[in-house]
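Hi U.,

Before I forget, here's the chain from the pilot set. I'm dumping it here mostly so it's searchable later in email.
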Amino acid sequence: MRAANLSIFADTRHFVLGTGIWRAARIFGAALLALAVKSAPCQVDSVGLPAQVPTAERMVVSKNQLRTPQKAQQAIERAQEDFLHARYDSAQRNVQRALDICPHYALAFTFQGIINLRSGNNAEAASAFQRAINEDPSAGSAYLGMGIVFNSEGRFREAIVPLDRAAPLLASSWLLHFESTWAHLGIGDSAAGLRDATSAEVLAESDPEKLAGVAYLRGVAHFQMRDYDAASRYFKEAVRHDPKGTFATLAKERAQQIGDDRTKER
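Structure:
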């Protein structure tokens, strides 16, 4: 099969996610980021902490978090619960309460970015994530949020920069490796994309939606390398993992398009 005949895939941005599902992917990323952000480890300057505090514990919170009043932290905890239960207006109010109490609270700006990301206000989301980074340069979740914004806009090369900054801060984040896979495939770097996909697959554990997403992007990578048999296998694998999910829908479309083009070739 000649690659030139697969013109439907000429636009990498269209192929990686497909027309009409950018909103679903953005919401997916926002929800996972909201789940992860409170437990994500951040680097911290340990100067001033007692020498007997173990190194692992010294890495739990940032200096910005340590300086944040408890009432502001509690407001963000409520915002997280609100967001995860689809109470978005209440989440926004709690974020604003946290910022009223502590105007330099990085995690509050990160949640502001997540709320804007979910609603499609990418410019406001990017601004909030950048403010979080300005307040706390170790805010790994804010760098990840910036990467999600850029990926959702097809600005893959720009996405790699904040994702690389997030990598040492969020090494165990499935979402980070997934977004990095997406960004590298977006610029046509299939080898780097597959390396990131391997890391994402390990961290996906048994989650069917995550496994389907990884399988789908593996299919994209093999398509880029013109290994159409492998691409078709991974698209089918995505369907097996999560038959009714977003990535299964995409994978079915891509597998069908490859099959149709092969039929035309005969």
